[in-house]
Amino acid sequence: MRLRPSGLQSYLGKMRGSTQGSPPRVRLPEVFWSWAGAFLGIAAVAWLNQRFFADADLALTIGSLGASAVLVFGAVRSPLAQPRNLIGGHILSALVGVTCWQWLGGDPWLAQSVAVATAIALMHLTRTLHPPGGATALIAIIGSDQVHAMGYLFVLIPATLGPLVLLAVALLVNNLPAARRYPEFWL
């Protein structure tokens, strides 16, 4: 009598010796353009941050922009990387995050969970789902006293301006090679 392997054993067996189910290998030109776009996009945000915002106790650079760069430059055709999602996802999530901090900041665990869950729900309802938006909502709560002092200014700087800078760079870089086209759709 032969025993059937469990689902996990079967899955692990397939993964060990097979590339079936793996994502396709990305061609080197695609890797180059993803690298160049991410470099230029984050460099633009970081340079603007250092030049104009560092002395003003404002921050243009937030961690969620790194995740946005992965989508906008590394997955240019993804619906999650399109301008509506990039901009709308960050703005909605920042609004939710700041509001949750102001209303629920006395219970940070509650503010964090309500902010991320609500940001996801609103992004779904508005068709602006952008995974880094969840991080933007979270940053509004777990950020420093400087972030909290910004209040709703956080929605403009960095949550709107940062993604707009990435979008400008994406429009330039992602449309240079013939094999890439960005955006797939605006609205």
UniProtKB/TrEMBL annotation:
Residues 23-183 form the HPP transmembrane region domain. It comes from the Bacteria. Keywords: Membrane, Transmembrane, Transmembrane helix. InterPro entries: HPP, TM_HPP. This is HPP family protein. The chain crosses the membrane at residues 31-50, 56-74, 86-104, 150-173. Residues 1-23 are annotated as: Disordered. It comes from Thiorhodococcus minor.
